[in-house]
């Protein structure tokens, strides 16, 4: 049996090698390396894919969040409610714009923000009236958060809602794809994400045309239509043409890859159902399966056992954000016990479209043997 990789970018490259090499070479010959026609083409294709009016590509998923907060005027005095069980980028951009992150617990089954705790935290730490504030929901491991309730809460408390879909591009709720589930959605094209570049990249999705114009301006130093007229403070978060060329090729097989991820998850589910806690399934909610994450109290020993059998696994995440040194000062001493507990139990297993059934079965057999 072939070696099992946690993700397998080399195999994906082999699938598309000629197309990718030719299109990158086309960019090199064109002399247009930053923004330009290929960046516009991928923005159009992504906007068609997600059925959203505007897509603004940027240089990473982190910049997608940063540019969004900045464009919304979130800054000193603003509060931004986020789940504590997430990747650091969700929290750091809030501090970078000078706003205050308010950590909210997640639900133990979905790993996503708890709407109940969110309302409690909004009531406890009221958003400042004269400063715009926001919620950033994260679609952890590829599963969309509860956007029907989140949109309702955001409207009731007059908060902007951003969906951090770094891990969930390609997922959907019913017939609405990620990108359309919240007024602003950000994603990442980091190499291990479901749709990825061969480098850094990201995008922002919104149906709001006025906001899209501001996002484009912030992405390039706050310019107006005139590149030497700066009408607001911006940054450099531009997307480059080589990554756009690669993304255009990868998008052609993206739906097939999502289907393959779904099949891998189905085998894991079937084999591990009664053995460990498998990821939550919700009727009508389709995950992008960025990660397949189980829960077990014997997590650390299982991880070591799998490693001895040459099966890689990862702990996403070993520490909740409110316990990280950089963010402790924002934690208000709140007891976010589900986020804290999950960090002791979660284990992400190999997940990518090119895992064979034989490999997945081999992994599950090892897990069963260990837990027996
Ligand atoms: C939930 C989440 N948000 C934001 C990001 C940041 O994306 P990037 O690495 O492209 O900056 C990541 C990346 O792992 C992520 O997982």
Could you characterize the architecture of this molecule?
The structure is a single chain. β2, α4 and β3 form a beta-alpha-beta unit. Strands 1-9-8-5-4-2-3 form a 7-stranded mixed β-sheet, sandwiched between helices. Strands 7-6-10 form a 3-stranded antiparallel β-sheet, with no helix packed on it. The model has no long low-confidence stretch (mean pLDDT 97). The radius of gyration is 21 Å and the shape is globular. Helices cover 41% and strands 13% of the residues. It is α/β, with parallel strands linked by helices. The protein is built from 12 helices and 12 strands. Pyridoxal-5'-phosphate (PLP) binds at residues 60-62, 86-87, 89-90, 138, 164, 166-167, 188, 190, 200, 202.
**Tally of separate helices:** 12
User: Could you say which small molecules are bound to this protein?
Assistant: pyridoxal-5'-phosphate
The span between the termini is 24 Å
The SSE order reads HHEHEHEHEHEEEEEHHHEEHHEH
Defining traits:
Aspartate Aminotransferase, domain 1, single chain, seven-stranded mixed sheet, 12 helices, binds pyridoxal-5'-phosphate, 2 domains, 372 residues, alpha/beta
Secondary-structure blueprint of this entry?
Layout: H1 9-30, H2 37-50, E1 54-58, H3 61-71, E2 79-83, H4 88-96, E3 100-104, H5 115-124, E4 134-138, H6 147-156, E5 160-164, E6 172-173, E7 176-177, E8 184-188, E9 202-206, H7 209-219, H8 241-251, H9 254-272, E10 285-286, E11 292-295, H10 299-308, H11 337-345, E12 346-349, H12 357-371
Bound molecules: pyridoxal-5'-phosphate (PLP).
């Amino acid at each position: 049996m072939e070696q099992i990789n946690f993700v397998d970018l080399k195999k994906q490259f082999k699938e598309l090698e000629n197309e990718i090499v030719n299109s990158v070479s086309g960019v090199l010959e064109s002399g247009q390396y930053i923004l330009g026609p290929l960046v516009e083409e991928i923005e159009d294709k992504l906007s068609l894919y997600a059925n959203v009016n505007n897509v603004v590509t940027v240089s990473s998923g982190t910049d997608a969040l940063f540019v969004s907060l900045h464009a919304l005027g979130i800054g000193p005095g603003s509060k931004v409610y986020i789940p504590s069980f997430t990747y650091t980028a969700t929290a750091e951009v809030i501090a970078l714009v000078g706003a205050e992150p308010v950590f909210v617990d997640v639900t133990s089954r979905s790993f996503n923000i708890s709407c109940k705790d969110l309302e409690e935290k909004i009531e406890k730490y009221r958003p400042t009236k004269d400063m715009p504030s926001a919620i950033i929901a994260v679609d952890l491991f590829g599963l969309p958060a509860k956007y029907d309730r989140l949109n309702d809460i955001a409207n009731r408390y007059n908060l902007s809602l951003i969906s951090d879909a770094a891990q969930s591009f390609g997922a959907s709720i019913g017939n609405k794809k990620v990108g359309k589930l919240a007024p602003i959605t950000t994603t990442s094209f980091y190499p291990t994400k479901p749709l990825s570049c061969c480098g850094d990249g990201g995008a922002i999705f919104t149906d709001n045309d006025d906001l899209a114009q501001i996002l484009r301006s912030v992405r390039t130093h706050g310019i107006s239509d005139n590149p030497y007229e700066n009408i607001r403070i911006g940054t450099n978060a531009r997307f480059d043409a080589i990554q756009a060329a690669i993304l255009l090729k990868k998008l052609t097989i993206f739906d097939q890859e999502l289907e393959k991820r779904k099949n891998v998850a189905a085998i894991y589910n079937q084999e591990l159902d009664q053995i460990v806690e498998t990821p939550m399934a919700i009727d009508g909610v389709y995950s992008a399966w960025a990660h397949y994450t189980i829960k077990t109290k014997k997590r650390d020993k299982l991880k070591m056992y799998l490693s001895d059998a040459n099966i890689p696994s990862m702990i996403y995440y070993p520490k909740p954000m409110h316990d990280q040194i950089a963010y402790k000062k924002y934690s208000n001493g709140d007891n976010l016990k589900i986020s804290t507990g999950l960090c002791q139990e979660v284990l992400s297993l190999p997940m990518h479209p090119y895992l064979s059934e034989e490999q997945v079965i081999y992994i599950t057999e090892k897990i069963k043997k260990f837990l027996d």
